[in-house]
């Protein structure tokens, strides 16, 4: 059963790492951020050594394809990328599999949150690699700036949770924002991007400025307010 408010999920993840324990750990973290997304580990070799296994990666991808998902494959080091690309070629499902060249842990969290929000595997893969918040500011801000003044809403919020916008709160905030028909910026970066939110480095007691436009702007800001005021479920830290 999907979490309340979860969209139809069409994307799943495969984590390829040289260590089986590392792959399983990344799966665990991603599952915390996106509980309805299927994330499979393909780490280590068949005999339990450190390394990668093309057959293990291929089997994980095939299983998810058979279940009807588009697949995002995330890797740790160079040979893992080679194993993933080779497995993709063997499967010959180029249109349904995307191998990501990006940060493993942060990218996995970002891709999982995108998948939770109903994005395609290509969209989730793009989310796993960025974009750089400096580029988001220059690309996204004009869209809001061009909107009529009456359609733009701005609110400021103080972070009350103990750890600020670290991985889990950033994932929750991105998931919340993505659920509304609105363009939302948090301190001039894309509010629906986990990596962009984490890159802000905002901590407890700091104030963030949230700008929203579009039909769902007010509802989005109300939801952001409720989430922040609740301490992202972590308490205020007081």
From TrEMBL:
* Pfam families per record: EIIA-man (PF03610), PTS-HPr (PF00381)
**Which intervals hold domain PTS EIIA type-4?**
10-144
Q: Which domain of life is it from?
A: Bacteria
Keyword Membrane assigned to the entry: answer is: no
Q: Which keywords has UniProt assigned to this entry? A: Kinase, Transferase
Stored InterPro entries? DhaM, DhaM_N, HPr-like, HPr-like_sf, PTS_EIIA_man-typ, PTS_EIIA_man-typ_sf, PTS_HPr_His_P_site
Question: Which EC numbers does the record give?
Answer: 2.7.1.121
A GO molecular function held by the record: phosphoenolpyruvate-glycerone phosphotransferase activity
UniProt GO BP: glycerol catabolic process; phosphoenolpyruvate-dependent sugar phosphotransferase system
Described purpose of this protein according to its UniProt entry:
Component of the dihydroxyacetone kinase complex, which is responsible for the phosphoenolpyruvate (PEP)-dependent phosphorylation of dihydroxyacetone. DhaM serves as the phosphoryl donor. Is phosphorylated by phosphoenolpyruvate in an EI- and HPr-dependent reaction, and a phosphorelay system on histidine residues finally leads to phosphoryl transfer to DhaL and dihydroxyacetone.
Q: Subunit notes for this chain?
A: Homodimer. The dihydroxyacetone kinase complex is composed of a homodimer of DhaM, a homodimer of DhaK and the subunit DhaL.
Quote the PANTHER family the UniProt record gives.
PEP-DEPENDENT DIHYDROXYACETONE KINASE, PHOSPHORYL DONOR SUBUNIT DHAM
Please identify the protein, giving its name as recorded.
Phosphocarrier protein HPr
Q: Which organism is it from?
A: Bogoriella caseilytica
